[in-house]
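Input/output pair, single chain:
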Amino acid sequence: MFEGILSDSKNTASWQDDEDGQWAQTDDAQRLDDREREFHSREGERKAKEKKARDDEYRAQRRGRRRDSEDSDRGRRRQDDSEEEEFRQRSDDEEQHAKKGRRGRGRDRRPTKEEEEDMDGRMDARRRLEDEEEEGERALEERIRKEEEEIKAAEERRGAQRDLDRERERKQRAEKRRDQEESMLNERKARIAKQQEDDTARKEEAAQAAKEAQWSEAEARRNQQHTKRMGRLAELDQKFKIEDEHRYAVMTLKGHEGWVTGLAFSGERLVTCSTDKTVRVWDVDKQRVKKTMTGHTSRINAIAADNRNILSGSQDGNINVWDVRTGEISDTEPTEDGVAISSLSLGTVPKHAMIGRADGEIRLLDLRSPITVVRTFFGHSGPITCLDFNNDMMASSSVDGTAKVWDFGTGTAIHTLKGHFLDVTSVVLCEDKVVTGSMDETIRYWDLASGKCRQKMMFNLGMVSSLALDGPELVAGSLCNRINVYDSTTGEQRYCLGGKDGHEKSVRGVTVKNGQVYSCSNDMTAKVWTLLD
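Output:
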């Protein structure tokens, strides 16, 4: 730009040699000088600002990026500072020299061609120096970037190494912990094995002792019952006809006009139900009916009793609760769907009863007025034939060929007893076993803990219809009109109750009371059997 202004000034009409200093005093020269000074002033200020900004940025980068390596780079920074100071001094000298040249031009003398060339050379040198500075700054930035990358990579390598070390230490600790746990587990297993061996030995000893005690108790009960029977032999011989070489005596209770479908005891009172829709209370010694209770509108299928109440369930699904003292109905559970009641049980839980229905459903009833259904049990696929329960468990049998053991608390089946191939007609729940009878002519003993069959007894030519357990004796009734009495421990048959004074049709139910066997049958009678030895 300075060269263009100088060329324009030389082409003006007023241009002349300024050997006498006349040019410097003209107005055009003054204006040109002012414009030149303003231009150089602006350019100087701009470049000074740019240089200051670059210097400040450079210092900031040096301070921020090289803070961690100040000790190692202190010599290099001093060298850079000296180069920077030298460059700044040289720049200031050139600027002062340029100003002196501008002040002298046109007033003292006109710059010569050599001075102009020298000034152009210095300007070119300054530009080259600035370019070199920029290139150096870029190289410095590149070097700093590479150093930062190297530092970052080194930090990443150190972090990875730390992670590896931590992982190795964690694995070592985990392996050590596993070894300790394995050692402790082995010790615990050894202790448990020894404890189990000791427990097994103690259980075997206790089981053997209990079995011996049970055998002794059973033998004592048999002896006691034998003594009682022999004591009553004279009296019975006068009242009843003795059969089977005087091994048992029998008497018959007549009064129902239909099949006698069930019997139970309310205290010392014998109670029976029948298809004639009545419930009867008997005076056994006098062989006559004390009380007849009516109220059902269809045949009665099942009966259960305690000291105060009698429960009866009928074919139409209704359940009546009878007061023993008055013979009146004290409460009723009417049917809701017409499904027949097939089984009833009062068990050992007071004021509660279990009912079995023809659709396979079992219900727990609270007998406190009004009667309410507490829980329903589902699982059988056929009519329920028999129920027995205590405070913890319930046993059920069904025509689906199975028996089940239920948990009272959860209402779920603990065991499904499979082994019979025909209808399971009866079930008895004991302390450590379950006894079932079936139409396949067998009686089975099941382990209550495992649900496995432990013993099997045959009822030859007799489909088992009912069971009753009385201490050492198991009584079984059958559809072939006979009643067998077995030793409950050994399974040996001791009595066969039948003959010409026995039942003429199928036995529907049996029970035991005070050493005597009671049975009911489709021949519309109930019988009392007294075993004599």
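Residues 278 and 294 are 5 Å apart (CA to CA). Helices lie at 2-11, 27-65, 70-104, 113-239.
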